[in-house]
Each structure stands twice: as structure tokens, then as C-alpha cells.
Amino acid sequence: MGVKGRTRSVLVSVGTFINEVVSFIIFSVLDLLDFTLCFVFKVLDFFMEAEWKPCYCNSAKEAIKSSGKILFSEQGESKIVCLSSSNNKLHLEDISDTLYTRSSLVSEISRSTVKELKKLKVEGTMIRSHTRVKNGTTRSTFTVNSTIVEMLQGKIGKQQSHPIPRWSDCDCETCNSWSYSCKDSLYVKVGGSKGNACEDVLFIHGFISSSAFWTETVFPNFSDNAKSKYRLIAIDLLGFGRSPKPTDSLYTLREHIEMIERVLDQYKVKSFHVVAHSLGSILALAMAVRHPGAIKSLTLLAPPYFPVPKGEQATQYVMRRVAPRRVWPIISFGASLACWYEHISRTACLLVSRNHRLWDFLIKFVTRNR
Predict the structure, then answer these.
(1) Which residues pair with 295 in a beta bridge?
(2) What is the bridge-based pairing of β-strands 230-235 and 199-204?
(3) What is 188-312's CATH topology?
(4) pLDDT greater than 90 at residue 181
(5) What is the arithmetic mean of pLDDT over 164-179?
(6) Residues 97-102: contacts with CB within 8 Å, 24+ apart?
């Protein structure tokens, strides 16, 4: 057993080493490829739509200049927040710092090259300072420099209107039905009871999914008794399925919750049960916090939960856990491609999603419509 144990340990170490080396090589190539595709898509966007489009691989500072939203980071906390206008109100909300901060070979080289230059420019976009007041409490004060003042002037409420669909999007009726029918509300599929005495159940799907996750698999298997007692409300979240996909949205927690609340108002839902899966579990918990007296029960399926070690930056730590930039196991490789490489993912969508009608036809033809 001792010899077998040592042999197995050696094989595991060799396998891990090979995986590390091969992963470094492949992801270094992918870093360069994604960097190249960034330039290619910018050129294509300019020629197709006469405008340079911002992307998330750029710095937040560049995004400030090229969008109607205002982004700034708090020094020392590596947190990006968004100041946006909605219903003539300003909202201050958290944006994951992985949105604009995803390390790669190219970005690491770039950062090390300009590191010394950045030291000379210590004035941050916004500096947070804590001052003690006489009664011993702490208050936060913000010093805004002239750059932010200039960005604020005329920026709020003047967001660019992007064409819908864009040249790289599918232009079929199914994918764009929201653009001329339901721009301000989510797509909703209602099943079960239609009576006034029934209870309401809200179903929230997860990532890369839609209301069909429930309506085509779960709803048909409910008993007649359940269907007579409950009204089943399944939604397509903002940006998913047949719901709106606004180009100026960052798909924040607040935006998702507000769109769900519109559905509840539309169907006059006062109290309800919630059944949620994966990403939907996060939204369900937010709904429970926001409407504690309205929610009768909360059922969470496969909620994403990652314990973060003390001292670690939570979002970056989870990003490395979910997408560890390794070629093996294969699921890690796929997750890494989707999470770290914006432009490679856009290329895949251009080839697959934009041409889904062709792929649907070919699959039906090969499988004889099975």
C-alpha cells in the first residue's frame, strides 16, 4: 500500500505539472487571440455602425468616457460602483470588480509596463477618506476631482442609443420580439389556476436559461390538484429568452429586481411563493430581503455558494474558483473561455447564436426532425 500510495502521489504530481504547463501555453495564446479579436471587433463595429464600441476588457476609465453611465472606484477597496439615472433618480450600486478586472498575460504585461507611470498619477477617480467627528462616530467624505465634474456635466440622461439588433446579433423575430412589443417588461409564461382564490408561485430560472426551464420540464408534471390551487408564473430574466436585452444595461441586481417587481404589479401579486434555480437563487434572496412580508416560502435549487477565505477579495477569488484557467477538467476549460475571454465568446456567439436558424435546420435534417 505504501508503494502504491507513493506511486499514485507521483503520478498526480506529474499530471498536475503537465496540466499547469499546457494550461499556461494555451491560455497565453488565448490571451493574445482575445486581444487581437478586441481590435478586430472594434474595427468591424466602426465600419458596420460608424461608432467605436466600448468593451469590458478596457479600463473602467475608458468606459466612463464612452458610455452614458459613470463608473468610479474606491481607492483601497478594488470596488467599482455605477452611478446611473433611472426615473430621474440617481442610483449608487455595486458592480462586480471582475467586470473590468480580469487578469491575463497581455493585461499583466501592460500593467507592469505602466506601473511606474501610474505611481506619478496618484489622484484617483474618487478618494474616500474617513474623518472622526467630535461624538466619536465615523463619516465618509468624498473628494471629486475636476475630471469627474466634467464627466458629470451633460453625461447623465444622454446615453447613446445603439441599433437593435446590432450587426453581430441575430435579427430573427424570436430573438428581437421584445424590441417592438415589450421593451419595459419581462416575458412571462403563466400556467396553473386562473381563479382569484389561488396562490401565486414565481419561478426564476438560472444562468444561460429561460422560463422554458420550468414550463417545458416542471409545469407539465404538476398534478391537476396543484394546477388548480396555484397560479404558476415563470419569467425570462432581463437579457434572457424573450425578455428585453438593453445595450445600455449592466444587468445589476437592482435592475433585475425592479423588472421582476413590474411583473408582480402587472399580475397584481400581493403574496407569493418563490422557486429559483442557480443565478435565480441570488435574485430570490434579494426579493426576500426586499419583500419579507410578501413571500410565503422560498425554494432554492443549486444556489451558487462559495466560502471565501478571510483576507481574500471575494469576487476575484470566486472567479478563479469557477474559471481556474485550466485545460483539464474540460468543464473548467469551457468556463474559463466564457468568463475570461469576452471577444472569443463574442466570436462563438457570432458563429453559433447569430446563425441558430441554420444550426436548427441542420440538426433537424441530420436527425430527421427527431
Answers:
(1) 272
(2) parallel
(3) Rossmann fold (3.40.50)
(4) no
(5) 82
(6) 97/73, 97/313, 97/315, 97/316, 98/315, 98/316, 98/319, 99/56, 99/250, 100/56, 100/58, 100/59, 100/60, 100/63, 100/71, 101/316, 102/56, 102/57, 102/319, 102/339, 102/340
